[in-house]
Structure formats: C-alpha cells, structure tokens
Amino acid sequence: MRGPKGVGRKRRSSPRDVVSWSTLFWCTLFVVINCALFSGFSFYAFRFLFGKTFQPVLVLTWPAPSNKPISPITISVREVVMFPDQALVFLNNYPRTAHVFTKDDLHCVYFSANDSSRSQPRFNQPPIDIDGGDFHNQIVRCPLPPRRLTVSVGLKHNDDVPVLPSYSWDWLAYDALVDRDNTTIVFVKGLNLRRERISNTEKFECVYGWDFRTTRFLLRSDVVSIAQEIVRCKTPLSVLSFPRGPNNTLKVSVRVKGGGAKGILDTIARPAIRPGLANPTHRKEHEMCLCSMVRNQGRFLKEWVMYHAQMGVQRWFLYDNNSDDDSVVVIEWLRRANYNVTRHAWPWLKTQEAGFAHCALRARETCQWVGFIDVDEFFHLPSGLLLPDVLRNQSNYDYVGEIRASCYSFGPSGLRRVPVQGVTVGYTCRLAAPERHKSIVRPEALNSTLINVVHHFHLRNGYEPVNVDKGVLVINHYKYQVWEVFKEKFYRRVATYVADWQEEQNVGSKDRAPGLGTRAVEPRDWAHRFCEVGDSGLRDRVLQSFVDPQSHLLPWQEEGGDGVVQVQQQQKVIKRSVMMMRKIRARRKHRVFL
C-alpha cells in the first residue's frame, strides 16, 4: 500500500527546481539597485532633516595641498667643498618651492668642526656670491672658515643651520654622467695619473652607494677605462633602474684597490643621464659649435661671440670657472639678442681637459663639429670663406675626425690700454712662427677615454686628424695683450698639467711668457714685445664687414659707452688733422700759384 504522497518514497528532481544563471543575475541586479536607491533616499532624507550641519569629511593619508603659496622656511645643504680661496656650499633642490635664493636671503655660518650639536658660539658672514640662476643649481660661495672651523649656510630669519661634512677639492669625484652605452663617466681629482696616458684599470674600481665611510654597503663595478682625470665604469643594472631626478641621492666614486675605505675618493658625483641620439649618424641641429672655459672674460665675450656668429658658429658652450666679473650679465644679454649661448658653472680648479670632455659629451647631441678655443682666440679665414665652407670640404672624407688650425700669437702691438674697438682691430703685430695648433673635432669620432691635451683629442680607430692650410684657416691668438689684461694669467692656470705661473715649475714652458719669471711685474718694454710681423688681415676684414655705416661702430661697441666715446673722440681728432692738412696743402698751392 502506498503511503501519502511524498512520504515513503524518494522525490525526483524536476527541471523547474533548478534556478538558471540568467534568473540569478537579474535578481542580484534588482537587489543592488534597490539598495542603492534606499541608501540615496536615506542620505537625502537625513540631510533634509538636519540641514547642512552634517558634512562628511574625507581623511587622506597625505595632507591635501594648500592653495596658499609655500614660502621657504628652511634650507637644505647637499655638500660643502673647500677650495684654496673659498668654500662652496651646494644647496639641495626644491622643485616644490622653486625659490631662488639671493645674497639678501642667506648668510654663511661658521662653527666648530667637532660641534655636532652646534651649541658653541659661532659667527656669520655675508656670502661672496650665489651662483646659479635657478633653484636646480645653486652654489653659495662663502669666505674660507678659520682654522678648526667649518662652514654652512642658513636663512637670515631662521637659526636652524644644516650641517654636513666638508670635502677637499683635490681628493674628490665631482661629476658623473651615464653615457649612451650605459657606462658611467666619472670626473675626479686626486688620482694624479700621467698626462695623455691610459692607466691600468685593474688598480681601480667604481663604487656606488649613499654612505662611503665603509665599503660594506657599497655596490662595486669594474673600470672600463681610466686616463688623466676621467674614469669610465660599468654601470650596474640596479643603478640604471634607480630613479634619477633633481634630488638624486645615489652617488658614485672611484676606489684605489687595496686602500680600503681610505682609498675611496670623497664624492659629490651623482650619475646623471646624458641622453644621446638614437641614430648618431643623423644630421644634427648645428653644424658648428664652440666650447670654451672662461674666467672673468665678460668684457671680451660680446666680440668673441658676435664675430664667430658671422663666421658661421651657431652654438656656444661656456664653462665658467669661478668668474666674479659681469660675465653672467653679458651672457644673458647675448641670449636675449638671440645668440645660442649657455653658461655651465664649472668651479673645479685645473680641470680644463675634463671640462672639455664634459662639453664634448653635451655638444655631441646637437653639434656636427665643435671647436675648442679660448675667448682670446679667433678663427681667421684669409681666403674669405666661412667656417661651414671649410667644414663641408673636410666632411667629404669620412675618416676626418679633427681639423687642426695653426695658432699665431699676437703681442701688445704698441698699445698700453685695452683697444676700444676690440682685440681683432687693436692688435696687429705678432710672432712670425705659429706656436701650436687648436682643433675643431667631430664629437662622434672621439676616443672613449676622452683624452685631450692642449685643445686636441684622441680619436677612435678609423678617424684621423688633418692640418688645414694656413691660407684657408688660422687662429689669431691674442695671447700677449696689454699688461692690464695679461697679468690676470698669473692668477691661476686652468689646465691640469700646466703649472701656475707663480710656481717655480716648468719656467721654460711655452705656456709662459718668456723672461717674466714668477711675479706679475710689468716690463718697461712690454708694449713692444712679441712683435715680429705686422698682420692686419683680420682687422681689415672686421672693419670692412662689421662696421655700421651710420654709427661707424662695431656691433660689440655700446653706443654712448666710454669706449665708444673714446673712438668718437679719436675719429674727431683724425678728421681735424685731415682738415688741417688739407688747409695747409691748399695754402701752399695758393702761394705757389701767386
């Protein structure tokens, strides 16, 4: 007998008892929509009942930026480097505040080098100068601290003074670039390697890190090449992937193997990416550029830049080696006059070769050819050609990596004051034989060691230097100018392997003036020295091509300036003399007629 329905027997499942996925989806969507509507209705009902007295606040992990301008209330020092005549304090960058400090904002603060708490009495002095026109690159120049004291900088309205260890300029890794092949190029002082020689890489290694007081936490890499004061290192992959910005803290140095931590050069060098062209053979923006290291050459820069612009130069890289004249003002004037001139602060002493190598790496990106000359040197083309004409002729030969031009050294030419129309017009007497040569190089042809001496570089395999004919291109080197200008050479020489003239070393070097010794004492016959051959070729071309027909002035002469007034007075005297001579001749003719 069967029991009641559903009792005593197993129930079979029916297709109607299984819920389909589509039904589940629409039911879930219905519930979610109803919850959202209910939440919205509840919120607006609550707001309607309580008005605006309830305002939910969203709390962020990082505080929201304020609309008010941020004024700098503190200052951060990155490094302090001691030089023979001043202390350089490098400031940290503040992109958030973007404040450019002036001498009115800061003072140099002196305290005991062993006083970490800064509790001992200290004194302040105004800075000598502040270098760098933007917040990314500011250097405060302070007077040297007395013995057993150190220096930092602080804001005048704030007693908080940041303190960091100081380094000496002559045992230092001071700059670094990551090249297009991902090697790191480190610029150093203190290794005292031989001139123009490749040194043994096995004696050195490169080290990366933050704390160089011990080798325990440093990342080491092999040295690829080392010559003079430039070291090329293999860059570890972790360093290449490390983020680099204005406040990069990762530094690189060079260690002498076997010396432990004491063999590591002090360092302020932070590897910076130097972007390179994807296709080095691609035609570059500028055909001809110039690199020069300058110190207190402000009054000569206009003539040098304007003249070479007419000769075909398109870009100028000026490495300023501690100028304290108006060079910055003159460079800014040239920039506003649409001359493509950039100034790079290069405070490192006796590092001309390293500075030229650094400049070659920068110029390589945009310049087909780069000339390395001083501000008292001018390319002269006796044939009447322009520099691009000479370069195009040489570019027809793929093996040419360097063009060498002979240098003729000019003397004071009888002058005792700086010529008001410029050096190209004022000095017209020189030594008969050329003293040396200077170079125009193809940056892509440079040897990876970047060895350079006396303005010429070592080239890669497959490239050769060529000597250009003297009838096509020479360099007028206004080396022995009036004593007022020439005596500045006794201050300090910029080349690494050239002794300062005040030292009793290499007294017979061609870099020195014969017979002067080591003291800046003007000889009585200085105005007439170094005059063997009269040479007015460049003077004639300048007067023919550059003089304004209305004002009768050269482009680098300021109308109304003292020099211009002197020229105008000289011209008036000449005109009066000519008129007097004409009158005298007329009277003589009249007497003869009678």
Automatic annotation (TrEMBL):
GO terms for molecular function: glycosyltransferase activity. PANTHER family: GLYCOSYLTRANSFERASE FAMILY 92 PROTEIN. GO terms for cellular component: cytoplasm; membrane. This is Glycosyltransferase family 92 protein. Keywords: Glycosyltransferase, Membrane, Transferase, Transmembrane, Transmembrane helix. Its EC number is 2.4.1.-. Belongs to the glycosyltransferase 92 family. It comes from the Eukaryota. Pfam families: Glyco_transf_92. The keyword Nucleus does not apply. It is found in: Membrane. InterPro entries: Glyco_transf_92. The chain crosses the membrane at residues 21-46. It is a single-pass membrane protein.
